[in-house]
Structures are given as structure tokens and as C-alpha cells.
């Protein structure tokens, strides 16, 4: 009975105190209670335009400012995601990202530059914060497309990137809580009467922090930010950056650095990116799939839904199996028409519609993702 109580402490559903503490902030991909969203698809295009997953909402002004001043589309999207990578309070990418099972933050990223048809990618990079910019550096300064692991880190240092500890105190404490919830050895023994007190002390008895830890332990985040832009001339670039699946086996790589999966651009057609369970995207080359669907005349939203349909078919549309994960696709075409789709209507246990971020030159705001299954997924 005592053992069950210990696990219950960590793995209960998200406490109401978490929502109270976090009101007004975009978490995951869902719409805050005090926000409004655009319709699920923008039928009329505009240029320039820049879009991202919802966690990039506050950073889109940075990219749009570059586009307005005539800067390059790749510089715009990389500058946008760098804002999020730099933010220690965003544990989905860059500095402060949730670590692998050994407590090491491992980052992945890719870029594509439509006008020159070039690409760059890095994976399993430790101790380098701005991996989207590193992927751009690989593209611009080497004859390679992809670099991984310690070789990519050493290249980054040679190019002037700072070598730094990426694990913030916030992320370290959540990792310790995950270790305690998943291991018999990283917590006091059954003879200890102070077990709950010990765990609560990890978070200084802060109920909101404890509730947030419960959430990410129960649903390990696949935190990512894809960003894509088209300028007034119709040139397109995109990037995707991530700290990957929380608590992953060291060396695991998802779709974010895979050209044609987590990021893809064709300057004659458009751009596409993804968040969520990357393994499912890799199996269908989702970014490439979306571009080819748009080449055949589908709207960005319709193309994203086609990618989700292919994932669902891999499981014979078995909703029980599909409910164990979530995935999102985002796309824009050369005319500036944009759209996004989510496998499920919500983001995990949250009830609101999933959303993404758009800046059309007026202001940054949220737009609804079109759900493939118009149902709440409480299990993924």
C-alpha cells in the first residue's frame, strides 16, 4: 500500500493548482482560457508571413521584424526559435530543455533554405544552446548536411558557440522527481517515514511546481518548435528545433533533425514541420508528404490531414493504439496560405482545441489546428 501511494504522488492527473498558477500562458499546443484563435485555416494568403507551434507565439515579432526589413527568411525563422531556445522557462527546447534518462540535455535541429535548396542538420548535441543556428552554420560553412553527437559539439565550439551546461535547476529537479517515480533506488526506502516530505522538498513545497512535474512525468513531452516563413517575393525557409522526448534513451533522435520529416521546404511549393511523437513522422516522411500534397493542389491544412491519415493507417485506424501518442503538422504555401492539423482535438488531458502561432504582419496570434480525430485524447 505504501509503494502504491508513492507512485500515486507523482502519477496522478494534473492538479488544479497547476492551471491556476499558469493561467494565460500557452503550454504545449492548447488555447489558454482567456485567448481567442483564428479559424482552423486561412484560405487567403498574405506575404510576408511566419508561423510556428504555439510555444513560439511570443517570439514571432522577432522574425517578422527581420522579414519587414528585407532580411532573409532563414535568418527570420532561426532568430524566432532562438528566442525560445534561450528561454530557461521553456523546457521544450534549448537551455532548460528536459533531459534524457541520464540527466543530460540533448538537442536536435534542422534548417532548410528554399532559395538555394540547401539544408543543415544536427542531432544529439550536448552543451550547445542554439542548435537551430548551429544547423544553419553546418549548412553555410561545411560541405555536409548533418552532423551529430560530440563531433557536432566540437564543430560548434570551433565556430564560436558557447559550451555550457544546459540543465537548469528547474529541469534538474523535474528529472530528479522522474527518477524517484520510476526507480526503486532514487528514493528513500520503505522504512523511511519522510518519503513524501523528501519529494516535496525537491520543489520547495511549491504545489504548482509539483503539479507540473506530475504532468511531464505522466506525459513525457516531445517539446519542439518548428517555424517557417515566406517573404514578399515568395521565398521560403524553415527550421525545427527540439530537446527531444523527455527521459529518452541517450542518443535517441526524433524527426526534428530529419530533412523530409520534421522539416522540409520546396521553394516552388511551401514548407512543413511537425511536433509530437517523431518516430511516427519519420515513418511517413511527413514533411515531404505534405509538400507533395500541396504540389498536387491540396491546401496546407488538407496536406497536414493527409499526413495524419497515413499515420493512422499504419495502425489500421485503431484509436486505442493511436491514443497512446499525439502528433501535429504545420504548413504554409508559397502564397502565404497556412494551416495545421493535430491527430486529436486537444493536447493530452487539456480540453481546448490545439493551436499554432501566426504572424501575418499585423500581430502574432493563435490559430486552431484542424483535428484528424475530433475527440479528446486523455491517454496520449
Tell me what the structure shows:
- There is one protein chain.
- The chain is an alpha+beta fold.
- Helix content is 34%, strand content 21%.
- The chain has helices at 2-11, 16-21, 60-68, 73-86, 131-141, 149-158, 169-182, 195-202, 207-218, 278-284, 286-295, 300-314, 319-322; strands at residues 37-38, 49-53, 107-113, 118-125, 146-148, 224-230, 236-242, 263-266, 270-276, 327-333, 338-344, 355-359, 364-368, 370-373.
- α1 runs antiparallel to α7, α3 packs antiparallel against α4 (73-86) and α4 runs antiparallel to α5 (131-141).
- The two termini are 27 Å apart.
- Residues 1-28 and 30-35 have low confidence and may be disordered.
Short descriptors:
5-stranded mixed sheet, 380 residues, 9-stranded mixed sheet, 14 strands, alpha+beta
| Uncertain residue segments | 1-28, 30-35
Going by helix content, strand content and strand pairing, the class is: alpha+beta
Strand tally: 14
Write the element-wise H/E pattern from the N-terminal end onward: HHEEHHEEHEHHHHEEEEHHHHEEEEE
Major beta sheet summary: 9 strands, mixed
Question: Could you outline the blueprint of secondary structure elements for this entry?
Answer:
Layout: H1 2-11, H2 16-21, E1 37-38, E2 49-53, H3 60-68, H4 73-86, E3 107-113, E4 118-125, H5 131-141, E5 146-148, H6 149-158, H7 169-182, H8 195-202, H9 207-218, E6 224-230, E7 236-242, E8 263-266, E9 270-276, H10 278-284, H11 286-295, H12 300-314, H13 319-322, E10 327-333, E11 338-344, E12 355-359, E13 364-368, E14 370-373
Parallel strand pairs: 1-13, 4-5, 11-14
Antiparallel strand pairs: 2-6, 2-12, 3-4, 3-7, 6-7, 8-9, 9-10, 10-11, 12-13
Amino acid at each position: 500500500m505504501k509503494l502504491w501511494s508513492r507512485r500515486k504522488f507523482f502519477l496522478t492527473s494534473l492538479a488544479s493548482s497547476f492551471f491556476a498558477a499558469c493561467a494565460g500562458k500557452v503550454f504545449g499546443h492548447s488555447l489558454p482560457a482567456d485567448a481567442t484563435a483564428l479559424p482552423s485555416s486561412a484560405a487567403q494568403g498574405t506575404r510576408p508571413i511566419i508561423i510556428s507551434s504555439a510555444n513560439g507565439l511570443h517570439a514571432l515579432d522577432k522574425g517578422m521584424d527581420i522579414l519587414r526589413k528585407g532580411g532573409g527568411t532563414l535568418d527570420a525563422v532561426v532568430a524566432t526559435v532562438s528566442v525560445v531556445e534561450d528561454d530557461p522557462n521553456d523546457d521544450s527546447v534549448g537551455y532548460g530543455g528536459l533531459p534524457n534518462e541520464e540527466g543530460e540535455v540533448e538537442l536536435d535541429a534542422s534548417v532548410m533554405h528554399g532559395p538555394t535548396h540547401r539544408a543543415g542538420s544536427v542531432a544529439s548535441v550536448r552543451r550547445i544552446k542554439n542548435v537551430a543556428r548551429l544547423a544553419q552554420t553546418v549548412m553555410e560553412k561545411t560541405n555536409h548536411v548533418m552532423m551529430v553527437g560530440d563531433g557536432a559539439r566540437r564543430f560548434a565550439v570551433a565556430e564560436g558557440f558557447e559550451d555550457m551546461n544546459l540543465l537548469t535547476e528547474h529541469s534538474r529537479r523535474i528529472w530528479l522527481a522522474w527518477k524517484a517515480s520510476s526507480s526503486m533506488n532514487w528514493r528513500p526506502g520503505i522504512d523511511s517515514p519522510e518519503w513524501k516530505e523528501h519529494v516535496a522538498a525537491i520543489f520547495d513545497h511549491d504545489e504548482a511546481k509539483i503539479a507540473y512535474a506530475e504532468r511531464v512525468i505522466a506525459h513525457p513531452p516531445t517539446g519542439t518548435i518548428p517555424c517557417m516563413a515566406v517573404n514578399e517575393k515568395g521565398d521560403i525557409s524553415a527550421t525545427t528545433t527540439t530537446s527531444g522526448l523527455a527521459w529518452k534513451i541517450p542518443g535517441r533522435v526524433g524527426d526534428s533533425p530529419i530533412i523530409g520529416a520534421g522539416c522540409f521546404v520546396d521553394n516552388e511549393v511551401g514548407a512543413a514541420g511537425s511536433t509530437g511523437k517523431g518516430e511516427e513522422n519519420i515513418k511517413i516522411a511527413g514533411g515531404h508528404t505534405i509538400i507533395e500534397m500541396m504540389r498536387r493542389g491540396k491546401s496546407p491544412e488538407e496536406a497536414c490531414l493527409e499526413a495524419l491519415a497515413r499515420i493512422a493507417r499504419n495502425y489500421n485506424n485503431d484509436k486505442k493504439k493511436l491514443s497512446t501518442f499525439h502528433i501535429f503538422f504545420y504548413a504554409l504555401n508559397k502564397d502565404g496560405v497556412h494551416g495545421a492539423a493535430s491527430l486529436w482535438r486537444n493536447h493530452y488531458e487539456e480540453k481546448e482545441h490545439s493551436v499554432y502561432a501566426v504572424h501575418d504582419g499585423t500581430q502574432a496570434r493563435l490559430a486552431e489546428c484542424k483535428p484528424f480525430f475530433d475527440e479528446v485524447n486523455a491517454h496520449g
